[in-house]
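[#protein-structures] MJ: dropping Uracil phosphoribosyltransferase here for a structure pass
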Amino acid sequence: MSKVIIMDHPLIQHKIGIMRRKTTSTKEFRDLVSEVAMLICYEATRELPLADIEIETPLVKTIAHEIAGKKLCIVPILRAGLHMADGILNLIPNAKVGHIGLYRNEETLEPVEYFCKLPVDADEREIFVVDPMLATGGSASAAITLLKNKGISKIHFLCLIAAPEGVKRLTELHPDVDVYIGALDERLNEHGYILPGLGDAGDRIYGTK
Ligand code: PRP
Ligand code: URA
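AK: finished. structure tokens for Uracil phosphoribosyltransferase:
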């Protein structure tokens, strides 16, 4: 069963509140995507294993801790996931980055794949798939299926805003994937947009439309 973690941290709720406003500028929106992604990443990496290492402080020898286990890889779903990845790289600068390009067919709402480039050793890494919006769940599910078909097994999914419909679809299709959500909204509208949501994340990040 997937673990579904809805972040209830005041900083995240405050920042998402600003992102929802239609008057928020492109620059401010973009900065907030990356800030909220960092805060969610803090929780999503809570269970990373640690190893003890001996170090010397200026005063004595001591045991410190360093992240051990599988190396990490961030996989943004293009294009809106890119800015989440930039934020997360501030915290995990040594992670590699893969890219999956998907867009939703506006009529069927089903994802169409147009790009996939992963690190050569992606199947040996722990993967964090990132996309601001989990609406019908089609894009996230398709991206994760694509990764699994390439032999990748340890996958987490991080988003800023989710609809219940998307959470259901993703967790039913991929019960082995833990899902980290900034805010869980009410529902989808008839065009597959999240309500209340924040509109089209890609358009708001890049100032298109
Ligand atoms: C948005 C969003 C997700 C997808 C979510 O991308 O960034 O990838 O929709 O919807 P779903 O859960 O119903 O699949 P979009 O297809 O608009 O592409 P873009 O990032 O290029 O704007
Ligand atoms: N994609 C978005 O960017 N926003 C939504 O509300 C749904 C899908």
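MJ: nice. The longest strand covers residues 155-162.
AK: one more thing. The chain has a mean pLDDT of 96.
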